[in-house]
Amino acid sequence: MSFVIIQNCSKGNNGKTEGVKQKFKKETVSALLKMLDEINPHVANFRIARDRFNIEKEDANFHMRIISNRDTDGRVYNLPSVGEVALIPGDFDDNLDKRDIVLQIKSEKLRRIHECHVSYLSLQYPLLFPKGEDGYRLGIKKTETNTSKRKKKQKDVSMRQWFDYRLQERKDEKHILLRSKRLLQQFIVDAFTMIESNRLRFIKKNQTKLRSTNKQAVQDASDAGDNDLSNKGKSVIIPPSFTGGPAYMQQNYLDAMGTCKHFGFPDLFITFTCNSKWPKITRFVKERKLNAEDKPDIICRIYKMKLENLMDDLTKNHIFGKTKLGTTLFQI
Amino acid sequence: MQGQIVLPMLKESPEYMWWLFTSDHPDAKNFRANVRPYNMLFSFTSLGGKVDRSVKKGRGPSMFALQGENYHLIDALKPKPGDYAKFQQLYVMDTDNEVDNRIEVMR
Which of A79, A290, A312, B81 has the smallest number of CB atoms closer than 10 Å to its CB? Predict the structure, then answer.
């Protein structure tokens, strides 16, 4: 469990034995708690549950349900309102929205929260979203613009687009998310895994649309004479459109080999790395009294801009003469 | 794509949070050095997936790496018998000594 994480964290400081007592200032903890008690809707809801326990003692028999979606327009509202949490008497029945969080008084195992739950982020990051601001949810509509009217393909905002929007700095948005240093790092990693598992779920549920029947035939043939059962069961095929997956890697490899066969071997093999001391980066982070590692998004964007500039110099400005083909390859 | 995605602005963060993230006061500095533990102290859910600590702290930018499938877990309202309260249970159980309980959990 995640408790281990924190303990290791303080031991990492070589030599400095920072005890846990010094790590957390009691005043800060109680001040934060007071703040959350005043403004955080989730805290308020759990306090209601506490009061019920205090009144009903051992007879308490109810479960708590945190609703996963909203009826309001996602382009306008992003704060939870009253009635999104319900204390319902008795045991729960599962016929309501399965993404809802249901908390029983006692249960044997932990419940996993669906990443499309609207409070997924605010439950994990109470300090970033002290007012219980909504996270991503399904069914936020896109706004129609002149260019978008022609192609009416995707009407809802996707999870990646939602995070893209959130990670941009806006002048009239006074929020600490983008200033939160290591918490922002964790937030971004978390966001990545949310998007990834969201995509994987889509692939899993749309297997019939992929041409997976051929694979099944092969599987049957090999199963007939094979005693190895490790491959049995339902397998999920990840298509090459899933970035970073095995099929994606294979396809890119074959493409690279194909281009070599057609054009001959490459003349230039350039390694282009990022330097977090680039003046563009330091200027940006200094204005905000941060370090370069606190703004991984800015580092990535500046790197991408410089990389594209380099590719333009080579392929469009022809500084080394006319180019037949230029490809980029990312290595992490 | 331009202008198709319009989301509400995030509401202004409380003064106190701004103070913690910008002030030079030792308390605020201590907070900034331990944001993640502090956040964990108040979070309702626990983080699945392993935090990768193989990269040693030292020179160079600090980073955060996760390994394995990531998910957020939430426990029942009350802890199991004999277990101490954690995460959202701290908002429900023994709230008279809440501040101490929270610090104790991280021990």
Answer: B81
Complex confidence, ipTM: 0.86
What pLDDT, on a 0 to 100 scale, did the predictor assign at position A305?
92
Place of tokens 């008279």: B96
**CB-CB under 8 Å, A8 with B76:** no
Interhelix angle for A279-287 vs A296-315, to 10°?
A: 150
Please state, in angstroms and rounded to a whole number, the distance separating the CA atoms of residues A291 and A288.
9
Cα atoms in the Cβ-side hemisphere of radius 13 Å centred on A52? 20
A251 vs A249: CA distance, rounded Å: 5
Backbone angles phi, psi at A101, to 5 degrees: -90, 125
What's the predicted TM-score (pTM) here? 0.81
Q: At B42, list the tokens.
A: 């108040």
Give the torsion through C-alpha atoms of A299, A304, A305, A310, to 10 deg. 130
Q: Considering Cα of B30, then B32, then B37, then B43, what sign does the dihedral take?
A: positive
Tell me which DSSP letter residue A177 carries: G
Domains of chain A: which residue ranges?
Answer: 40-141+155-163, 268-332
State how far the Cα of A272 lies from the Cα of A313, in Å rounded to an integer: 14
pLDDT tens-digit readout, A106-123:
777 788 888 888 888 988
Residues A70 and A119 sit within 8 Å (Cβ to Cβ)? no
- Chain B residues with CB under 8 Å of A131 CB are 11
Measured between CA atoms, the residue of chain A closest to residue B100 is A26
- Yes or no: say if A184 and A178 are a contact pair by the CB < 8 Å rule: yes
Contacts of A205 (CB under 8 A, 6+ apart): none
Measure B59 CA to nearest chain A CA, in Å: 12
